[in-house]
UniProtKB/TrEMBL annotation:
Occurrences of domain Anaphase-promoting complex subunit 4-like WD40 (ranges): 261-322
Protein origin, superkingdom: Bacteria
One Pfam family, short name: ANAPC4_WD40
Protein name listed in UniProt: WD40 repeat domain-containing protein
Length: 324
């Protein structure tokens, strides 16, 4: 039976991460908590809106209402690594070789590996950010689609159009697909080789959490009473294929998903604080955590593939050890 080490905090948990082997929990007030031989706290943004774990540099990047991007590293050390003046930073992302991106209003900035900063403006608000897995390419979710920039060159951006408000973006691990979350209850995808569209609809709620399975064969998503898991094994992705539905609970809503780093298993967090693990091959479920105070808003696996850090909108956080 998995064991849970709880950490009761006061506030909405925006992100979880393991830096080294230490679990971190970033709250909306800008405080960053860690379980490192006891409960310890650092302070980052004055009002934290977004966070992203930078695996390449083993750090947590945060952005917020103070117009600053913070880097939180081992030992809870915090440093300002970028600024956008008085604008609220609403999205951050990490790229190859230490590159990072952040968005505020209609602008997205990229800090290149050498430290040079480039700004890209858009007709409407730059919502979500993501770097491609190969090469220095930045995807920006925006109104009526997504834009792909090539910050290290003077190449023209690639425009991916689809009507509606696109709020988040993610590349497939092989770089062949881009998927966006939308203001409506749907996902939209593009196959980059030929621009083919993928409409992923039928959700009863907005999709706020996405996670790729190991090797990118599946894309798990929140926004329904089950984790909706789309197949991406074929060259055309999920076009014409039905998704898996894992961990169905009729009266609950999935609010967060996190695929296991090495096994085809997905951790599923619900709006009542419950956490399940489900196996993609046969839909077998294991209860990881009983219901708590608030909806699960963040989950991260550690590098040894046995611990899962979780956080909720009510601040009840903790670490689940599945090897116990």
């Amino acid at each position: 039976m998995p064991t849970v080490a709880p950490l009761d905090l006061d506030g909405h948990c925006v992100a979880t991460a393991f830096i080294g082997e230490v679990p971190y929990f970033a709250l909306a007030d800008g405080s960053v908590h860690r379980l490192d031989h006891g409960h310890k706290t650092s302070q980052a943004n004055d009002g934290l809106l977004c966070a992203f774990y930078d695996a390449g540099s083993d750090r947590l990047l945060t952005g917020g209402e103070d117009g600053k991007v913070f880097s939180i590293g081992a030992g809870g050390e915090t440093a300002v690594v970028a600024e956008a003046g008085r604008k609220w930073i609403t999205s951050v992302a990490a790229g190859p070789q230490g590159a990072l991106a952040y968005a505020a209003g209609r602008s997205a900035w990229v800090v290149l590996p050498g430290g040079k900063v480039k700004e890209f403006q858009h007709p409407r608000t730059a919502e979500g950010l993501a770097f491609a897995p190969k090469g220095l390419r930045l995807g920006v979710a925006r109104y009526n689609g997504a834009t792909l920039h090539f910050p290290a060159t003077e190449s023209k951006p690639v425009e991916l159009e689809w009507a509606g408000a696109h709020t988040g973006i993610i590349f497939s691990p092989d770089g062949n697909f881009v998927v966006t979350t939308m203001q409506e209850n749907a996902l939209h995808g593009w196959k980059l080789a030929d621009g083919k569209h993928m409409r992923m609809t039928g959700y009863p709620a907005k999709v706020k959490s996405l996670s790729w399975s190991v090797k990118g064969k599946w894309l798990a998503s929140s926004g329904a009473p089950a984790a909706i898991v789309w197949p991406f094994q074929s060259k055309d992705g999920p076009m014409g294929k039905a998704p898996l539905e894992l961990g169905t609970r009729g009266n609950s809503m999935v609010t967060c998903v996190a695929c296991h780093p090495t096994e085809e298993i997905v951790a599923i967090g619900y709006n009542d604080g419950m956490v399940l693990a489900a196996r993609l091959a046969d839909a077998k479920e294991v209860l990881l955590r009983r219901p708590g105070k608030g909806a699960i808003t963040a989950m991260t696996w550690d590098r040894s593939d046995r611990r899962l850090a979780f956080g909720s909108e009510a601040g009840d956080c903790g670490v689940i050890d599945i090897s116990a």
